Each structure stands twice: as C-alpha cells, then as structure tokens.
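Table S2 (continued). Query chain:
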Amino acid sequence: MADSATGPVDLVILGGGSGGYAAALRAAELGLSVVLIEKDKLGGTCLHRGCIPTKALLHSAEIVDNINESESFGIRSTFDGIDMAKVNSYKDSVVAGLFKGLTGLIRSRGIEVVEGTGRLVSPTAVAVGDRVVEGRHVLLATGSYAKTLPGLDIDHERVITSDDALVLDRVPASVVVLGAGAIGCEFASVWRSYGAEVTIVEALGHLVPLEDESSSKLLERAFRKRGITQHLGARFAGVKTADHGVTVSLESGTTIDAELLLVAVGRGPVSAGLGYEEVGIATDRGYVLVDGDLRTNVPTVSALGDLRPGLQLAHVGFAEGIYVAERLAGLRPAPLDYDNVPRVTYSHPEVASVGLTAAAARERHGEIRTLTYNLAGNGKSQILRTAGAVTLVALPDGPVIGVHMVGDRVGELIAEAQLITNWEALAVDVAQLIHPHPTLSEALGEAHLALAGKPLHVHG
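Corresponding output:
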C-alpha cells in the first residue's frame, strides 16, 4: 500500500480523467510508481459525460439525416422515429467498451487506483477517507464542471446541463440552447436532426465565437438552412419554468417558449473544498495557476487539464499528462505549443481549426494573407452533398499559421492541417504534395495550390 506507513510513491495523481490517466500511464511506462485517485470512474468527463457520449449521439443524428435525405441520392426509405432507449443503449455501450479497455490498461501497467474523494493535505500527500497517500510529487487533475450564469438555477428537469442532456429519455419538442460554443452547437445539431425545434441564444456576435469569423459565418448559414433559430449578440435576462416547459427572456425583451433550456455557457474548474488553497496553491477564480512546465507555485505539485487556465480539450489533457510524467522521470519533453492545438466542433456541418484566426494573426503579426477555397470545387464534397470551405491564414511570403475548415467530416482533415502549422510549412511546400482524388483532403491541397499562386479547380 502506498501510504504513510510504507513510504511515498513517485507520483500521486488526484483525478482520473484524460490528463490524469495519461500521466499515470506514461509515468508507469517510465518506471515510476503511481497511485491514481478517482472519486467516480476512470476516464472522467470526456469518456463518461463529454467527448465520447456526445459524439455517439451525433453519429445517431447523422444516420437520421442520411435517412431523411436519402431520396436525393436515389434511395427510397422511410423514417419511423427515434427510440431514445436504444440510442442511449448504443451510446452507453460505446462508453462501456472504452471504459473496460482503459481499466484493463491501467491495471496492466501496475497502477494502483484508489476510489474515493481525495483532498490535498500537504505538498506531498492526498487524503482519501482515513487513508493518506504520500508521493514525492502530486499532480492535480480534478477537471471541470458545467457552469451556469449568476441567478440561473439548474433544476435538472426543465433547465438542464449537458450532463442532463446526455441521459434524456426522450426527444424534446423544442429546446433553447444558451451558449453557442462547441457544446451548445453540438447539442443544437443533434436535437435538430432528431426533429426538435431549436433556438440558440449567444451573447457574442457569432456561433462558435472563438473560431475564425469565416467559419462562424458558414456555420450560421448552415444552421439557418437547417431551421435552427439564432439570437446572436443577445443577452439572457431570465427564465420562468412551468409544467409545460420554460419561457426564456432576453434583455431585448424577446421571449422564447420551449420544453427545455440547455445551459451551455462553458465549464469551470473543480477545485473548491479540495485543500488546494490551504496548502498554499495559487489560484485565480478557482483555476490553479501553473508555469510553462505545469508546475504550481508549490514545487512538488503540478496541475493540468481543465483545472488550469487555457484550452479545455481532452487531447490537451492527454498531451499535458504525458509532458508532466516525462518531466518527473527526468526527460526533457518538448514544450507544449498551445497555439497549434487542433479544435473540432462535431456539429452538422463540422467546424475544425488549428493555429491562429485571421483576427488573432493580424493582432500579433500585422500584415497577413488569407485564402478561402470553397468546397464546391471538391469532388468528394459534392458526392457527400456538403457545403463549406477551407480558409488559410499565412504570413506574407511566410508560413501558414492558421487553417480553418467547415464541412461534413472536416474534423478528419485537421491532423494534416496540424502538421502544416506546427512545421511552419509554406504554401508552396504543401502545394507540391499530391493528394488522392477524390477525397476531402484534396481541399487542403487545392487551398495551398491557390495560396501558392497556381489554383486548379478555382475560378479567377
């Protein structure tokens, strides 16, 4: 047992989500002794209440869309409705399979898992119930929770979070989605495919407001064509609940009646009551502050993932977990480049990006070049009947520093785009690479051909 009676282990990890378990696996691989403390289930939000179950719902929604649109492809079919019990069973089976694989992997690496709520009690120790687990180093990986707005109470029946949305036993007739980030847009997309009347309310001026404006505008157009109502630049004023549903009020005076209100205004750090501040860990609005090596101000304590300020993405957690483990094992891992982390919103259509937006690039570099390649010129996109575009952001006579895409399946292209921005490729470097025809990946190739001054399937 790794407690005060038997001496410290090399690493105690508080939280078994994406970052925590990635750190555990890599640390064990490098020969470190590890204890992983988790109050719920290994895999955390991403596996159980985030990335994986939402994408399962989005896949079922895609099948609904395929059935409804099949006539345009020459296929006669009828849609008889949605059995949410079976949809949820499918979703849960995906999660269960991945969870079984993860627990087996953790076990095979000799990592001890302690179930229970942990609390940091010293710079080198975490208490779980009446047991104290001591380590030479502690990693805080307690993740995040679904936030709400001041004065907006979640009743988990009419006013719900994304956690509640994942376990709904019915398709709501109508929904107001408050917040147009990735979570809000993904659920709006699912419910619209399922046949619900969907209204999105966003205080900022665009859907997916952190993305490049070109991507936001394309998604807004696509959502309008799908019949999703949008109130952009609209501030929420309040909500009244009744037996029939909710009435949402905006500061403009507009009211919207619906069966449900989904609150999707972001996620906050899980840090309160866990002993961090008592041990002297520096925080800001609940976020644990770290340096470039993910160390806190207490030398023996590191923190990662949604708990620290910055991008809240599972793949960032994976990378940070590996980084911390390698640093503690005495290696010198390459610094993490947060500018070039790929981002995907898995709505219909998808939004994928990596690198700087045009606005951020102008602010940082001044003069830039941009080029937009419309998917109307891409053969596979026409076969799939998807609209969208690839927008490139580059320095004058310099590398490509941003790639922004909208269209079905463009999330699968972001890995190549990530190589382009991370390796600081010039447009001419990518233009000479031959992309297979007909594929969506050709859109990336043709965008770079055009930026290099030799456009192919482009007018003008």
